[in-house]
Each structure stands twice: as C-alpha cells, then as structure tokens.
Amino acid sequence: MVKRKLSPNRFQFKESLRRTPISVEPDNEAPEQETVDNQPLTRMNTEPMGSPGTISYGGYVSEEYLGILRGKRRADVFDQMRRSDPQIKMCLSSVKNPIKSANWEIEPFDDSPEAVADADLIKHILFQDMDTDWEIGRRRVDTDWVDFIGEALTIYDFGHSVFEVINKVVLDDEKYGSYIGIKRLAFRSQRTIERWNLDPITGDLRTVTQYAYGDLDRTVDIPASDLIVLTLDKEGSNYEGISALRPCYGPWFRKNNYLKLNAVGIEKFAVPTPLIEIPEAKENSLQYTNMINAIQSYLTHQNGYLTYPEGWKVTLNSNTYDPAKVETSIDNEDKRMVKSFLANFLELGMGGAGSFAMSNNLSDFFLSGLDHVASKIESPMNKYLIPGLIKMNRGARANYPKLKHSGVSDKAGKELSEILKYLGDTQFIIPDELLSGFIIIKP
Known about the structure:
The chain has 443 residues and is an alpha+beta fold.
C-alpha cells in the first residue's frame, strides 16, 4: 500500500478521526494511534465531553461554603459591609476611584477613513448619546458613561455586575444620519439577581432570572444575549464571581463584635462603681433614701451601685477594663482587610513605620492590578457590544474599533518630570510640537 504524502498546509480527515467510543482491551493496552508517514495525526474534538464542574442547582450557584454568603443573601451581607464599615469604604474607594478617573476612548483599528468613521460613531453612541430621547429633545434619566463605570465597578463589592443592553433607533441625525444606538446600559442590581440559568451541556449562560420588589417590581428571565455580565475572578461557569469583600467577611464579623464589646465596656466601666456601707436598721430611713438619690444622680439615674451594711461609707471601686487592648484587636482586623485588597500602602505611617520607597513599590503593585480590572470592562464591550453596533449600522468588518482606557497607573508630578527629563537627556525622545501636544500642564 502506497501512502500519500500530506501537504503541510492541508488537513486529512479520516473515518477513524470521527468521535467513536474507545474500547479498551482486557490487557489494558492503549489503542494504536493513526499515523501518516509515521507521524501521529491530531484528533479533532468538536463536542464537549467534560463539564466546567460549577456546583449549581436549578440556577442557584453553590460554590460558597458559608450558607449566609450564597445567593441574594450574600448580596445583602456585602451591601451591609460596604455601607457600614469605614475601612471597607476606604479600600473600595482606593480601587474604584483610579478607574473612575481614567481616560476612556474609542480607538480605530487603523487610519483608514472607514475605520475612523466606525470609531467616531461608537464614540458618539457610548459617550454622548446614551439616555437621550431625540423625539422630545430631553434626557429621560440622569445617567451616562461615568455612571456606567461606577455601576460596573460594583464587581468589587459583589463579584459581578449585570447590565441589560437596550437599543434605540435615531432618525435623521445631522451628522450620522439614521442609526441604531443605545438607549441605556441598564444596571440590574445584584440584590435582585435570583438565578443563573446555565446550558447543561456547555455551562454557558442562557438567561438570568431577576426578582425585583417594591415600586419597580419585576419577575423576568433576561436572555444572556441581551446582557453584559462582568465577573470578578470567574471560575468555570460561576458567573457570580468572587467578591473582593469575601476575604474581608471574617475580619469584618469579628471587628463588629469587638466594637460592640468595647462600647459596652466603655459605657459600663467609664464611671467607677460606688460601694455604700449602710448602718443596721437604716434601710427604711430618710437618710437611706437621700443616699440612694445622691448616688443615682451621680450615676445619671442608673442603678449601677452596690450597698452593704455596717457604717455609712461610700467608696468608688475602679475596674481594670482597658479599651485600648480591644482597639488593638480592631486595628489588626482593619489591617487584614487592607491586605485582602493588596492595598498595604494605605497603612504605612499609621503605626510610625514605613518609607516613601516602600510606599511607591506597594502602590505600583496595587495600581497594576487595577489595569486588569479595567480591562474586564473593556473585554465584553470589544467582543460583543461594539462589533454588534457596527454590524447593525455599517455592516460586518474584518476588524472593529476598540474601547481603551488609560491613566490608571500613569506616573504624575515629580515622577513624570524625572522620566521625561531622563528620556530627553539620553535622546530617547526629542521634544517637539507633536510631543508637547500629549503633555498638558495644569496649574
């Protein structure tokens, strides 16, 4: 039998390459592999055999080992944490504010007129035209791109954020003509997300079930094709993700107990306990009544005093409760929260330790992680939303505009000037008008 030599740029498909059950002989010998010119053929796998393994029952993800942090209950707990604890508020602000203040722009694929026109249309739709009702000439709701970024960053708080894409038709615009835009990237609160309905074969998201109550009551299954789902630390088909507050739950829980104990201790022991000696047969006398009234006035009408017989004598018994020791435990829990955000530099100097160099190193490491989170916002926009808008308005393209961010981890002030001076002195860059246009010096 003569074997035909394969061209390096072609594939040969054989009947033996189709998916068929592999029978294992009793002697456990491996089946002989198909070869061409003694070279093994690569087997194509077009259908999934395994599973992502995400633990989910009826759309309820059960990856979390603490029952109180599953489903909508966990959203309620995380919401309580972020609203009540100053340390958590500081940590969340430290990761959100740099991304909120970042520069967001639409970058064309290349310099061709077609690519520039595509990017200009997407820039108009996302940054200028959302939530504008052109028929009545006024804004319907007070939200825009900045608000979208703020709501998207709740992935830190809850592990995920969900948006429903609502389109609109704009007719006869002066610059862009008639086009399909976006009325709203409508936020769907994490506290209303009931179920994640997955494809049982692939594990892909099919729909999201929302239960909303109150004046905005709604029970609906929203198709995944109409959603933008952002997930923090997604594993497999766990679209809930892992909240940045999850490692803070233990320190937050203990800290709350310490705060209560400290408040009770300070209230109970800030005033020493009076001890009163009462002579025999004086318990029902006018003198006894006057003594008790005086003590109650001293204690602001509280009953925190002790009486015992013998002679008339009042002493103040001091206790050994030290609130500073409990405060030390509270500070330690705060430090654990900061570590979970990789924001150790926020604690430098608070205990009399730390240096400028250490702060720079730690903050650089921290800011590099924020770029990663900002890219999570870009990814679904560049993969689904922007190509879909271009296809609906201008037809399919080989390449599409991209949403880009900048300024999250940029150096500023003294560091930027030192970098520019070094690059100029070493002739790596040559100052000119074009370069000056990229450097804006504000008073």
